[in-house]
Amino acid sequence: MGNLEQACFVTGIGTGVGKTFVSAVLCSGLKSLYWKPVQAGRDPESDTETVKRLTALGDEHFLPEFKILQTPCSPHEAAKIEGIRLNPDEIHLPTPVGKFLLVEGAGGIFVPLNDETLYISLVKRWNIPVVVVSANYLGSINHSLLTLAAIKDQQIPIKGIIFSGVANPESERVIESYSGCKVLGKIPFIANPDVVAVQSAFQKYISWE
Questions:
Q1: pLDDT band at 4 (very low <50, low <70, confident <90, very high)
Q2: Is 40 inside any structural domain?
């Protein structure tokens, strides 16, 4: 079981919504540890390498992946292609002392780790709050509300929602209203983000308590 005040899990409403960038912003602002349990593909760098580059935090802030897969697709499929099976029972939540731990998932909360286990089952076992990253596109209201409803259905605590990218106030209002979840921040699109931009984004756009 996780410590509700010492860790969080970052998931997206789908792939390509800015989850890794948001993770970098949170890690920079919180000076947290970062852990990506399963990395599938490096195009051109892993998510850990991206967060390290965007935060300029020391190596001591980054925990090694449980598994690095070379194929850029769903973890369960990448593992099959590479002739292995991911065993969720072997993926143990680290218990660091004195630092906040940010865990980044792969894609959305229903991404499979193998033919029997979805990521949401792992997060439920860990019992740590979830930050849901949403981006505004046609269909994002549906994807956001489905993701939040699924997490609630499993009685997993939700820390809140972070909107990433181009703003759509009406979509954001509807998602907040229907879900009843707190909005932790709205990070606008930042072209070619660097360390300074990531550091300032936490102060400007994130409300973390």
A1: low
A2: yes
Reply yes or no on whether 124 is catalytic.
no
- Tell me, what's the pLDDT at 93? 96
DSSP symbols for 85-100: ---GGG-PPP--SSS-
Nearest by Cα to 24 from 44, 63, 53, 67: 53
What is the domain count for the chain? 1
Kindly tell me if the per-residue pLDDT of 20 is higher than 70: yes
Whose tokens are 């792992």? That residue is: 122
Given a cut of 70, is residue 17 above it in pLDDT? yes
Which CATH number belongs to the domain containing residue 181 in this structure?
3.40.50.300
1 within domain boundaries: no
pTM for the model stands at 0.95
- Report pLDDT for 44: 87
DSSP string, 101-166: EEEEEEEETT-BSSSS-BHHHHHHHHT--EEEEE--STTHHHHHHHHHHHHHHTT--EEEEEEESS
Of 19, 36, 67, 186, which one is the catalytic site residue?
A: 36
pLDDT, average across residues 31-44: 94
* CA 95 – CA 74 distance, rounded (Å): 27
The reply to whether 65 falls in a domain is yes
Domain contains 2:
no
Q: Which pair of structure tokens corresponds to residue 171?
A: 């979509």
**In terms of residue numbers, what domain contains 27?**
7-205
